[in-house]
Amino acid sequence: MKHLNHPLVGDVKYVGKKRARADVVWCPRQFLHAYRLEFTHPESGERVEYIAELLDDLKEVLGKLS
To answer: N or C: which end of the chain has fewer CB within 10 A?
Structure first.
Protein backbone atom coordinates (compact mmCIF):
# COMPACT_ATOMS: atom_id res chain seq x y z
CA MET A 1 0.00 0.00 0.00
CA LYS A 2 2.90 2.36 0.65
CA HIS A 3 3.93 1.88 -2.98
CA LEU A 4 0.48 3.18 -3.97
CA ASN A 5 1.03 6.15 -1.61
CA HIS A 6 -1.55 4.81 0.87
CA PRO A 7 0.49 3.37 3.75
CA LEU A 8 -1.35 1.33 6.36
CA VAL A 9 -1.69 2.82 9.81
CA GLY A 10 0.55 0.93 12.21
CA ASP A 11 2.52 -0.97 9.57
CA VAL A 12 5.98 -0.86 11.16
CA LYS A 13 7.67 -2.70 8.30
CA TYR A 14 6.74 -0.28 5.53
CA VAL A 15 6.00 3.10 7.12
CA GLY A 16 9.06 3.22 9.31
CA LYS A 17 9.54 3.39 13.05
CA LYS A 18 8.96 7.14 13.40
CA ARG A 19 5.62 7.06 11.59
CA ALA A 20 4.58 3.84 13.37
CA ARG A 21 5.30 5.45 16.79
CA ALA A 22 3.12 8.40 15.81
CA ASP A 23 0.35 6.09 14.59
CA VAL A 24 0.22 4.04 17.80
CA VAL A 25 -0.66 7.19 19.77
CA TRP A 26 -4.10 7.26 18.18
CA CYS A 27 -4.47 3.70 16.84
CA PRO A 28 -3.06 0.84 18.93
CA ARG A 29 -2.88 -1.70 16.10
CA GLN A 30 -2.65 -2.01 12.37
CA PHE A 31 -5.74 -0.47 10.78
CA LEU A 32 -6.52 -3.07 8.17
CA HIS A 33 -10.03 -4.36 7.55
CA ALA A 34 -11.91 -6.08 4.77
CA TYR A 35 -15.65 -5.46 4.92
CA ARG A 36 -16.44 -8.08 2.30
CA LEU A 37 -14.58 -11.09 0.97
CA GLU A 38 -15.94 -13.16 -1.90
CA PHE A 39 -14.35 -16.12 -3.62
CA THR A 40 -15.02 -19.48 -5.19
CA HIS A 41 -14.70 -22.31 -2.68
CA PRO A 42 -11.80 -24.52 -3.83
CA GLU A 43 -13.59 -27.84 -3.17
CA SER A 44 -17.25 -27.18 -3.86
CA GLY A 45 -16.84 -24.57 -6.58
CA GLU A 46 -19.58 -22.60 -4.82
CA ARG A 47 -19.33 -18.80 -4.68
CA VAL A 48 -19.04 -17.78 -1.00
CA GLU A 49 -19.19 -14.36 0.58
CA TYR A 50 -18.29 -13.16 4.06
CA ILE A 51 -19.19 -9.77 5.47
CA ALA A 52 -17.59 -8.35 8.60
CA GLU A 53 -18.52 -5.04 10.16
CA LEU A 54 -15.74 -2.82 11.41
CA LEU A 55 -14.69 -3.85 14.92
CA ASP A 56 -15.52 -1.58 17.83
CA ASP A 57 -11.90 -0.62 18.54
CA LEU A 58 -11.45 0.62 14.98
CA LYS A 59 -14.79 2.46 15.09
CA GLU A 60 -13.53 4.16 18.24
CA VAL A 61 -10.33 5.23 16.46
CA LEU A 62 -12.37 6.74 13.64
CA GLY A 63 -14.54 8.55 16.19
CA LYS A 64 -11.44 10.20 17.65
CA LEU A 65 -10.55 11.58 14.23
CA SER A 66 -13.85 13.38 13.68
So the answer is: C
At 2 the three-state DSSP class reads coil
State the pTM of this model: 0.65
Within the chain, residue ranges assigned H as helices are 12-15, 17-26, 56-65
42 pLDDT band (50/70/90 cuts)?
A: very high
Distance CA 10, CA 54 (A): 17
Which helix (H) or strand (E) segment is 27 a member of? none
Instruction: Report the candidate in 21, 17, 28 with the shortest Cα–Cα distance to residue 61.
Output: 28
User: Using CA atoms, how far apart are residues 24 and 17, in angstroms rounded to an integer?
Assistant: 10
β partners of residue 39: 48
